[in-house]
Every structure is written in structure tokens, then in C-alpha cells.
Amino acid sequence: MRIAFLGAGKIAHTVARTLTQVPSLKLYAVAARDKNRAEAFASQYGFTKAYGSYEEMLADPQVELVYISTVNNLHFEHMTLCIRAKKPVLCEKPFTSTAREAREVLAMAAREKVFVGEAIWPRYVPLADTIVQLVNSGRLGEIVSLQANLGYPVSRVPRLDRLDLSGGALLDIGVYTLTFASLCFGDEVAGFDSTVRKSPSGVDQQSMVQLCYANGRRAYLLSSSLTATDRTGVIYGSQGYAVVHNINNYQGVDIYNAGNELVQQIKAPPQISGYEYQFLACAEAVRKGELEPAQMPHQTTIRIMDLMDSIRHSWSLYYPGEEAGK
Question: Is the CATH number 3.40.50.720 carried by domain 2-118+276-291?
Fold first, then answer.
């Protein structure tokens, strides 16, 4: 399948390096606002074509799946361009800046019958299914709670400290802790509590979020752009617990009994980087004529965006164009 990149920033380099090693996917086209940059990117990774205009690339009939990796606040605009051009889309997280934008994009995609997927890569890796099966198996007894943390010292990255670019730790980092909770416990969140530390510009830098579920389960989630963390997720049950290594790209699961004895270790299968799985899944879905990836259904994308809106608004953190209190 011929893949086109809309955007040629840092994450695009990592993804391109990965996809050069996937025979069933062809790095076909890349577009950036600066054509020289697009040409340099294309030359580095072996793309067939380079464009200095997104619209020009989307008019290319050879493009079969578009990967969007532009800054957060542009995801809505760029997905809209792709859908109008009838091009299937895989868009980096956060899917959009707000749940309202997400609903508009997905409604448009449904009308136009265009595939759209969110590139939240931990949902696509093979170990994700293993974690879900473990939670549902009864092996840990009655599941009571989970905790997860993710942090990187990236608060000085300019785009993360700007409200006008939909910055902050929640949308870039916290989305992974919310995704881990969603994978394990589903999306029926009954309520939440949270605390936050903000930067002088008003974006969130670190937060602790407690999600409350109707069945009594709790999820305790730490996200931070101020410090590195161990990136661990732990699922607690009445008969034991499971430690998930690296919730940003599951590397393994250690299972303990109620006596704190290690009873099993499950390792992730060999991979290129982990990014390959979302492309393989979405390419297969497009080939089958499906409109969303099974690993990350649109309903889950919407619910996580709704949750992030609610959490931000509880901190009085609003992006430009949002109405306070709504």
C-alpha cells in the first residue's frame, strides 16, 4: 500500500525509518510547507515523490493512505483536507484538540465513507490483546484498580508550552495513561478527580487523575512533561497483580500472585519500533473497505477526547476558540 506523509517533523522521521523495513508498505509521497524540506525527507527515506503543498499531494491518485503528524491544533484541518480528497487517514494522537472537532471529523468521514484512524500506537501492538485477555481472564481475581505513569522532561519544547498549539502534557503524554486505562477497564467512566501543575503560559505540565468506574474500579494516572518516570502500569486484583513495562510501547508483563511471588513473565514479540503495527492494521482495514480500525474504534477516540476536555476544563484550561464553561 502506498503511504503518504502529511508533515515531516520529528515523529515522521521515526515512523519513516520504521516503514522502510515493512515490505508490504511503500513510502510513496511526503508533503511539507517547505518543498525543500519535503525533498530532503523524501531523499533520506526513499519516498517516490515530494510535494510543497498538502493539496497537491492529496490530488495524487496513487496515494492510498495518508499519515498526519503535524502539530496538535492542525489535526482537524488536515484530516478535513484528506477526507474531502477521499483519502484514508491515520492521524497522530491527540486525534484533535477537542472532542467537538473529533465529532465533526468523524461525522464527515462517515458521510464521505472515508477511513479514519487514530495513531495511538499502544492500542495496536500485539501485547495489547494479551493485557486485555489477562484482565478478563479472572487470573488476578476481582480487578480492583490500576495505576499508570508516563513522564518525559520535555516541558521546554516550545509547542508543548503554547495554548494556541493545543499544548500541555495531557494531550501529548496523558493520553497514553488514559489509553492504558481504557484498554484495561473500558470507557464507561463514571467520574474523575484530578490535580494539576501549570506552566506560566497556562498549559498543564503535570497532573494526577483518578478515574472512577461504575463497577467500583479506580485508575490512578500520572502524566508529566517535567520529569522522566518509569512508565509502568500495574493492574491490581484480589488474587494478584500484573506489572506492565512501558505503557507507551508495551515491552512485557510480569504476573505476581497475592503473596508477591513472580509466577509468569510475558515478553513482547520482536518488533521494528512498534509503530509498524498501526500502519499494518490500518492498511488491512482500508483494503477490506472498513471505515475505522478495530484496535481503536471511533467511539473510543470520542470518549477519550471527551474525557480530556472534561479534565482540562476542570483545571480552567481552555484552548483558543473554546468557550469557558462549555
Answer: yes
